[in-house]
Amino acid sequence: MTMDHLHGRPVIIGGGIAGLMTALHLAPEPVVLISKTSLGDEASSTLAQGGIAVSLGSDDSADLHLADTLAAGDGLCDEMAVRRVVEAAPQAIEHLARLGVAFDQAPDGTWLLGLEAAHSRRRIVHAGGDVTGRELVRALAAAVRRTPSITILEGLEVLRLLVADDEIAGVLAVGNGDVTTLSTGRVVLATGGMGGLYHHTTNPLGSFGQGLALAARAGAELTDLEFVQFHPTALDGSRRPMPLVSEAVRGEGAILVDESGRRFLAGTPGTELAPRDVVARGVWRQLGAGHRVFLDARQCLGARFGERFPAIASHCREAGIDPAIEPIPVRPAAHYHMGGVAVDAVGRSSLRGLWACGEVARTGLHGANRLASNSLIEAVTSAAWVAASVAAASPGAHKRLKPTIVPPRPDASRIRPIASRALGIERDGETLREAAKALAPIVAGRDAASDPALVALMITIAALRREESRGSHFRTDFLQCDAQSRSLRLTVDEAFEAASILSDTKSDTESLLDRRA
After folding, report:
1. How far apart are CA 340 and CA 500, in angstroms?
2. What is the pTM (predicted TM-score) of this model?
3. Could you give all domains of the chain from N- to C-terminal order, each with its CATH number?
4. Which of 81, 127, 185, 261 is within CB 3.0–4.6 Å of 364 for a Cys-Cys bond?
């Protein structure tokens, strides 16, 4: 079916914080917000326990926040992009409060500030202790629903961006058994991350990088795809997505120990509050050596654990653990993607008419390793700049949409074993090459695994090209940092060219070239 009465309006894809904020900033211009579930459901935003990084303390400043972000990013941050975000952060927090977000406050009415890894100051604003993302989504979704200029289409999954004359012409989506085409010259991707490609993840399993697949198939450039952040402390159990044990618990003094109680990071600079990639590798190696790993908060929090971290305490109780008197079993899990759609300062991609906001975008803020709690503030601040750019852009001519093949709804289950083995905390060239050879024919198969396979293939090729260890990307066959390395851009054409060379089969190349269907 078509929705001619909505044609020409900007379309925002994604019902998490980035999508909701962009829609609100575009008001009163009529916009369409598409979410494959009810707003906020199955969004990584809702699961975010950590807070929002913002320099509000009397001992803090935007310059200090900038310095910490650059240090965590390991040489690949865009300093201008970082400064823009950290300087806009205080006003963004005030705006969120006006929209109804209930941040945690001290008795004197000031906002409580927490400490997380690699921050030199206490600058993390929380809501509800450890349910910051849920509170933000609650308040923003309520604001969106009462904004008459925003048309919400829930239960629709966008499967393709439609392109004509090298610019966006519309979207194709499915839902409730119907196929929907919507004509538009302005699309904002706010689709979140790609942790659903892994067995062990804190992300919803449906978050496999669909926005990346949409952008790549449409012809947009992607950047820094190899940088996947693994959170060191997910609750080790059978639940998926894995409940996160927030870095704020370590910020309160919890320590990592093995089954004998040995604090195995004691000799590591920064110990439990070292950068996430360092802590994650430390935990990963303990597990690889046959040990178990636990987060012990008994001394620092004890009976106060449930009051300070009610959601984490609830997850622990569901798993039969009392964190007040027992250490919490943890393991690393795929958590956040620093790479994404290559965008400029206002979120514009390399494809005319396409913007990206939030985790799906690569803005230059995070570099090779995201500083804790910088993701929510990126989504909130960037949404304003993206919205202003979209509003100023020409809506484009209304184009007649050509019939197109409707692909199946994606399913990442076939891809998880491949991605988990090849694209984990430690990588090597041989395993990456094997993964690329396995993924290429799945992409060409045009079945439910095709889009997840495309995202995994592009990450694999990016990881092969980065022959060094930097930030969250660790190559056991290239242990050193390359001082000359830079961010790497990649298109779907380049990824398939690399895959065809690895496969060394002309037929594979020919079958893959019809990649945008």
Report:
1. 23
2. 0.94
3. 231-333 (3.90.700.10)
4. 81
